[in-house]
């Protein structure tokens, strides 16, 4: 009997030792993950204040204030009526699609949220293995909840990520899971983390950058650091105004993704660790962990670029853009979800 007990005891000790080892490994992994997550700037939606008055910087700069121009009462009522007629349209969502809104704000100090200079909806469709990058132009007229008809970029100045997400969801009938935002400084630093980006310039773009930030670029493919790529993405008065600017913003983002594709797992891990402190977001800890595990697969997906308003699906009121909402919503849903 004693000889039979010894093997059982030995097996028990081995199993117990393995369990202890696994527990320690998990504890280390969890500790590393907690240190990563604690670096990020997680903000609960309910902790974000909404301002119903126009916002300005501490200096009161006209350039850096809420884009507060609005439609006439007649045009605003027409827009609100058009959107009300679409209340029956279901909000698009799918378990196979993850939507995150990437926001670049023009904030240069912490006294306000800033206007959203760049708004790109990243839609990861796992069934199609595609990433859809859809820019929403800053001068689109929308109805901001509880505020009224305003330019889209002013939603961020009044209520940061949560209000901007809510505005896009209600106007375009699309479920947005999360948002992540950066300002000018952090965007430049993020680009530097991947070693800069390679972009092809027209001569007019090269001339603009040479005059504005003192570069010595010529037409063709050039390598840019973060500051230079940020300036490139903000060019507005070369080419077709904001239409081309949103294209430049997507090109920069695409190049960042392409650079990330070239990293091995260790390098990608280091990139994520250094990038997290630069980003404000509303992704809870458990969700973010799951999404980060999928990044090595996701960044291999085909990238498809587009913008709202779509060509031919908008009208002008003066210099302001009003989408054809019914057709825009249908096309947006069809593109991202294949509906």
Automatic annotation (TrEMBL):
Per UniProt, what is one Pfam family of this protein? LytR_cpsA_psr
The lineage's top-level taxon is Bacteria
Q: Which residues cross the membrane?
A: 12-33
**Where would I find the Cell envelope-related transcriptional attenuator domain in this sequence?**
115-260
- Keyword Transmembrane helix assigned to the entry: answer is yes
Look up keyword Transmembrane and say if it applies: yes
Give the UniProt keywords, A-Z.
Membrane, Transmembrane, Transmembrane helix
User: Which Gene3D superfamilies does the entry link to?
Assistant: LCP protein
Family assignment from sequence similarity: Belongs to the LytR/CpsA/Psr (LCP) family.
Q: Which PANTHER family match?
A: POLYISOPRENYL-TEICHOIC ACID--PEPTIDOGLYCAN TEICHOIC ACID TRANSFERASE TAGU
The molecule here is called LCP family protein
* Organism of derivation: Candidatus Fimimorpha faecalis
Taxonomy-wise, where does this protein's organism fall, top ranks first?
A: Bacteria, Bacillati, Bacillota, Clostridia, Eubacteriales
């Amino acid at each position: 009997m004693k000889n039979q007990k010894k093997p059982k005891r030995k097996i028990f000790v081995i199993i117990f030792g393995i369990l202890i080892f696994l527990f320690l490994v998990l504890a280390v992994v969890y500790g590393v993950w907690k240190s990563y997550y604690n670096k990020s700037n997680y903000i609960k939606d309910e902790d974000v204040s909404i301002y119903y008055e126009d916002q300005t910087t501490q200096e009161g700069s006209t350039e850096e204030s809420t884009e507060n121009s609005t439609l006439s009462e007649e045009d605003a009522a027409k827009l609100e009526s058009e959107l009300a007629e679409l209340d029956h349209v279901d909000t698009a969502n799918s378990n196979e699609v993850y939507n995150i809104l990437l926001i670049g704000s023009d904030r240069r100090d912490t006294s306000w949220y800033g206007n959203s200079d760049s708004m790109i909806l990243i839609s990861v469709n796992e069934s199609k293995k595609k990433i859809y990058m859809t820019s929403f132009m800053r001068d689109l007229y929308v109805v901001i909840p509880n505020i009224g008809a305003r330019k889209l970029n002013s939603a961020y100045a009044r209520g940061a990520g949560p209000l901007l997400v809510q505005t896009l969801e209600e106007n375009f009938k699309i479920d947005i899971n999360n948002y992540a935002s950066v300002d000018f400084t952090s965007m430049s630093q993020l680009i530097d983390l991947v070693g800069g980006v390679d972009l092809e310039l027209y001569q007019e773009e090269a001339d603009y950058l040479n005059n504005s930030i003192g570069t010595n670029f010529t037409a063709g493919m050039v390598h840019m650091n973060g500051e230079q790529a940020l300036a490139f993405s903000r060019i507005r008065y070369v080419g077709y105004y904001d239409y081309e600017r949103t294209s430049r913003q997507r090109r920069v983002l695409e190049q960042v993704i392409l650079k990330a594709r070239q990293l091995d797992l260790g390098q990608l891990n280091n990139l994520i660790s250094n990038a997290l402190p630069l980003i404000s977001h509303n992704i809870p800890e458990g969700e973010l962990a799951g999404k980060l595990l999928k990044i090595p697969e996701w960044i291999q997906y085909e990238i498809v670029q587009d913008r709202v308003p779509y060509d031919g699906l908008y009208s002008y009121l003066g210099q302001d853009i009003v989408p054809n909402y019914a057709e825009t919503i249908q096309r947006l849903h069809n593109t991202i979800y294949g509906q």
